[in-house]
Amino acid sequence: MAKQLKLSALDLSVIIEGGNAATAIARTVEIARLAEQLGYERIWLAEHHNMEYIASSATSVLIGHVADKTTQIRVGSGGIMLPNHAPLAIAEQFGTLETLYPGRIDLGLGRAPGTDQLTAMALRRNNLNTAYHFPSDVKELQLYFGNDNSDGRVRAFPGEGLNIPIWILGSSTDSAYLAAEMGLPYAFAAHFAPAQFRTAISIYREHFKPSAQLDKPYVLACVNVIAADTDEEAHVLATSMYRMFLGIVTNTRKPLQPPVPSMDPYWSPDVENAVKQMTACTFIGGAGTLASQLSRFVTETGIDELMTTGNIYDQGARLKSYRILKEVLS
């Protein structure tokens, strides 16, 4: 690679066919331990609700569990959907995590609900206007974590005075302006919403204002990576991921399915087109193919950090994918 690129992982504790929430979380821990061993920078977990086959809904709890099962890798949220929570509660939760695992906790924040509207209403007690408060809620969090709130009527303990990095997550251009204005690092969800990725990071860099946390723009891109010994094997493994996205597009979600020889029996041209649009930032292949594809992607986008997620059914193949990727980027 032309530049020193940090490499990280995203995991949603996806439940596989024949598995359950406990086995999904165990798989996440195993990925975290391997990522730590290989020298990955961080592993993030994502907040989703009312999704039968994703086990990361209580994100703060899961972050604590993964941090406890590892020793060095940074563990954080990719992200906490802040409109679902009172900023004080998140300050206390992440203040506690940082107290337990000092120097290892990241707080990535998103403004999307991470669920459907009805569930969002249940989480927010019928107040769907909280999404409009996102910028002020981020500032409130910064106040709770800072050293300037000692005279405040409301304070976060643990939390106050702790140096917990805040990230802004995005899947559109709106978040780019906010991350730039606040001088915060920017993580883009190109693994499922790639359409505005290049426009968003351009806006972020153009409008960035230095802050106490960050003196220059910092872009993390999350993408799908399926690596294997050969291109052919990788493309077979990727059918599990494509079937997962097919379930999202057609609202027929299932546990993560075993791979199949071909996707042809499973999707129509329209559905295939929709899935391929969602997964446009996906890299599939053996080491040589990935090296070429990722080198071009990193050079074109100038990203500072690559975060990858790999929804592979077989855990051994999944672990191997992370190993191959690390070798490719070393």
- Cα(first) to Cα(last) distance is 8 Å
User: How does the overall form come out from the CA principal axes?
Assistant: globular
| Name given to the CATH architecture of the largest domain | Alpha-Beta Barrel
Tell me the total number of β-strands. 9
What would you call the structural class? alpha/beta
**SSE order, one letter for each helix or strand:** EHEHEHEHHEHEHEHHEHEH
Strand order of the largest sheet: 1-2-3-4-5-6-7-9
User: Percent helix among the residues?
Assistant: 40-55%
The CATH topology of the largest domain turns out to be TIM Barrel
Portion in strands: 15-25%
> Superfamily at the CATH H level of the largest domain?
Luciferase-like domain
Poorly predicted regions: none
Radius of gyration equals: 19 Å
Number of domains as seen in the coordinates: 2
Largest sheet: 8 strands, parallel, barrel
Assembly context of the chains: single chain
Average pLDDT, rounded to a whole number, is 95
Structure, explained:
With 330 residues, this protein is α/β, with parallel strands linked by helices. The protein has two domains: 164 residues, TIM Barrel; 113 residues, no CATH class. It is built from eleven helices and nine strands. Strand 2, helix 2 and strand 3 form a beta-alpha-beta unit. The longest helix is centred in the last third of the chain and has 20 residues. The protein is globular.
